[in-house]
Amino acid sequence: xxxxxxxxxxxxxxxxxxxxxxxxxxxxxxxxxxxxxxxxxxxxxxxxxxxxxxxxxxxxxxxxxxxxxxxxxxxxxxxxxxxxxxxxxxxxxxxxxxxxxxxxxxxxxxxxxxxxxxxxxxxxxxxxxxxxxxxxxxxxxxxxxxxxxxxxxxxxxxxxxxxxxxxxxxxxxxxxxxxxxxxxxxxxxxxxxxxxxxxxxxxxxxxxxxxxxxxxxxxxxxxxxxxxxxxxxxxxxxxxxxxxxxxxxxxxxxxxxxxxxxxxxxxxxxxxxxxxxxxxxxxxxxxxxxxxxxxxxxxxxxxxxxxxxxxxxxxxxxxxxxxxxxxxxxxxxxxxxxxxxxxxxxxxxxxxxxxxxxxxxxxxxxxxxxxxxxxxxxxxxxxxxxxxxxxxxxxxxxxxxxx
Length: 403
What we know:
Layout: H1 12-15, H2 21-34, E1 40-41, H3 53-64, H4 77-91, E2 100-103, H5 106-117, E3 123-128, H6 133-140, E4 144-149, H7 160-166, E5 171-177, H8 189-200, E6 206-210, E7 235-240, E8 253-256, H9 259-270, H10 278-289, H11 293-313, E9 329-330, E10 341-342, E11 345-346, H12 350-361, E12 363-364, E13 366-367, E14 377-380, H13 385-401
């Protein structure tokens, strides 16, 4: 009789799926903190601000008003209309509510899009460095991830020439984020137009533009690829409320897309989660009605912290970085430390360095391997100035031990 313990009861699909390294590193940090260590967590992409009070009040009112029943799969009509209005106001994009699908976080929005567009064997170009879940979601859809690497010297941005050379007859989708997680780079209107002109020549290729960090932009007006009429119908814009409104736990994201793709995502979602939480949707509606003032206040704090971190990093030898113009991450190249050792431990790669910083400095970060850039480490500066000063003081001391 076969040993039951030797039988793999799990599907190949889940066995091949990598755990999110951002979540994994945050978990390791919490475990160390539970043992009594003073861990500073720079691994999580989460605002340290509270959700604005007017949004909380709207959620409480929604409960009192009896919004406790199932919601329409693509979202409440008034929320979808508010998103339409927002896209027109902020992005000069013309959509109707039928083009909007509200989901349980932008991560589900992305998964919906990939599952609805990608067939087994389809190639999906991912601008690298990229957010950790892009590649794994593509693999779940049995697509073939194709990384196109932006160089540090070019602010980690992919060039039109790189994009053109990566496109084949099997390419179905291009995925990118701007502002970028993990690099903080922002594609401006001219850069997006140049990329869109490449894609114009390949009508079989669609684009997923992840704009979740839209409001955290230090350089000026946000640009959307869907604003170019010649490619608009092939662009799926993904956005949400977690970053700009400090609503991570509320789990509300959305897409804007052509009617066929929006309907497909509605159909996909109807079989997996159905409609997003009623209370969270009412909170999201209030967020949009309240404008961008709270987001602008948070962005000003992130800019101050960015400059603080860049200043602190100047005192640490061997770190090379771009100057982020959005989001709340710093993504230095740390490869100068590879091959160095301390106390019998040799740093072979970025993951080793992350683990060294966690155990020696009690700083949680994320290896660039998770983002398609194995020579880098991601630090989040979505925490207080005091913690950032202490964190980079510890990082400096620990890195100095490596010889």
